[in-house]
User: Fold this.
Amino acid sequence: HSHRRGPRADMVPEIAAAVGFVSGLLRTRGCVSEQQLQVFSGALREALTEHYKHHWFPEKPFKGSGYRCIRINHKMDPIISKAASQIGLSLPQLYQLLPSELTLWVDPYEVSYRIGEDGSICVLYEAAATKPPSSYGGMLTCKNQMMLGRTSPSKNYIMTVSS
Assistant:
């Protein structure tokens, strides 16, 4: 698993970090069930993968950054509202659950966010490609790991998804 073949084309860790962050925000308010969060995360992951498909340039990480950027600024990002509608969350509910000013940048090798128009930018995910090889694959710091709680899909998730 250690062989590196130049920039990777997949966007799995970046999207996972973004999705984990947004569903983490929904989770903190406690009015969304774990099962709803699983559905929401899946829907958001699919929507982002689809949205970014032709706008992902690992060799030029910032190309298309504006297109990939997820924004809530008194207007809900359509990708988020679409995923939320799958679990029956209305726009007014989303506005209550999520910050009214949120920008999430999902770029190859780095995912960062800012809450509030002049908040500081926090990095959610940074790939090891930009770091010395000693640090192993985009490991999240403990703080984020707790926040995202992303170990493996929970077992009940597999059961609740019926075709």
